[in-house]
Amino acid sequence: MTSNLNPYVSFDGNAREAMEFYRDALGGELTVSTFGDMGDTGPAAEKVMHAQLSTPAGFLLMASDTPPGMEYRPGQNISVSISGPADDAANLRSYWERLSAGGTVTVPMAKQPWGDEFGACVDRFGISWMVDIGTEDSAG
Description:
By secondary structure, the chain is an alpha+beta fold. It has two helices and eight strands, in the order βαββββαβββ. It has helices at about 15-25, 90-100, and strands at about 5-10, 30-35, 50-55, 60-65, 80-85, 105-110, 115-120, 130-135. About 25% of the residues are buried. The model has no long low-confidence stretch (mean pLDDT about 90). The protein is about 15% helix and about 40% strand. An eight-stranded mixed β-sheet has the order 2-3-4-1-5-8-7-6, with helices on one face. The chain folds into two domains: about 1-70, 2,3-Dihydroxybiphenyl 1,2-Dioxygenase, domain 1; about 75-140, 2,3-Dihydroxybiphenyl 1,2-Dioxygenase, domain 1. This is VOC family protein.
């Protein structure tokens, strides 16, 4: 398995509707996880924590609703995501180190509730990046 680079879009509460629209327009398989799936019992429990559309053409689009406590900023609601399996962790960490150098780390690279290592930053040119290192279980 190889690493992927793809767009990651943030929405203001309508990520599920948008991703269902993109699935209908582009085809493919859509998976959706909510904040509630990760244990949130508050008002955001039904909001999308992560959605992923994989199309027959090879397109990969990811999205989420803007997390509680974070500002939704139209025009700045897209990031570039790099994700890959645990067996590519050294390369993924190297990308993370180089992309975050001279920029601003918004989420330090660390193990997350869903099991992966994840970090987010804004590079020195103002581009938002997310790097996700899958677990051994997801390497397969």
